[in-house]
Amino acid sequence: MLDAAAVAAPREACGILLGEGARIDAALPAANVAADPLRHFEIDPAALIAAHRAARAGGPRVVGYYHSHPGGEPRPSATDRACAAGDGRVWAIVCRGDVTFWRDGASRFEALPYRVRHG
Questions:
Q1: Which of 24, 60, 67, 114 is close enough to 14 for a disulfide, judged by CB 3.0 to 4.6 Å?
Q2: CB 106: neighbour CB atoms within 10 A?
Q3: What is the C-alpha separation between 42 and 24, in angstroms, rounded?
Q4: What pLDDT, on the 0 to 100 scale, is given for residue 37?
Q5: pTM for the predicted model, two decimal places
Q6: Residue environment code for 69-96, b if the CB has 16+ CB neighbours within 10 A, otherwise e
Q7: What is the C-alpha to C-alpha distance for residues 13 and 90, in angstroms, rounded to an integer?
Q8: DSSP for the chain?
Q9: CA nearest to 73, candidates 95, 91, 92
Q10: What is residue 100's predicted lDDT score, i.e. its pLDDT?
Q11: What pLDDT does 40 receive?
């Protein structure tokens, strides 16, 4: 996610979080197809469909999404809140070399603690 954000800057990077339950095993970069990728993100629908098809075929589940805030704060923006589905998925936000994680709850985003495991 950090590499994708660095490559995309000053545009917003985005992608799909794959895993199971509360565990994220992979972050799959996707094209940002937003009309204004300098200020917004929209994950390429073809990438989302492919990830969901792979999950139905026994692959990792789509547990959430990530995007970067190249000039913003490391928390959900007003635009993020307006576009959120309230579906309980995880949103990771990459900002200034750090990543924060949030649960897209029914009425608001909730900060999530996390631990990185190697190996």
A1: 67
A2: 9
A3: 21
A4: 97
A5: 0.94
A6: bbebeeebeeebeeebeeeebbbbbbbe
A7: 16
A8: -HHHHHHHTTSPPEEEEEEETTEEEEEEEE-B--SSTTT---B-HHHHHHHHHHHHTTS-EEEEEEEE-TTS-SS--HHHHHH---S--EEEEEETTEEEEEEE-SSSEEEE-------
A9: 95
A10: 96
A11: 95
Quickly state the pLDDT bin for 67 (edges 50, 70, 90). very high
* 1-15+62-119: CATH architecture: 3-Layer(aba) Sandwich (3.40)
And the tokens for 97?
């070399």
Query: 1 is written with which tokens?
Result: 């996610």
CA atoms within 13 A on the CB side of 95: 13
Token pair belonging to 77: 């923006």
Closest to 114 in 3D by CA, of 99, 104, 97: 99
Separation CA 1–CA 18 (nearest Å): 13
Distance (Å, whole) CA 112 – CA 103: 7
Catalogue the active-site residues.
12
Confidence at 119, pLDDT banded by 50, 70, 90: low
Q: Quick check: 54 and 43 in contact, CB under 8 A?
A: no
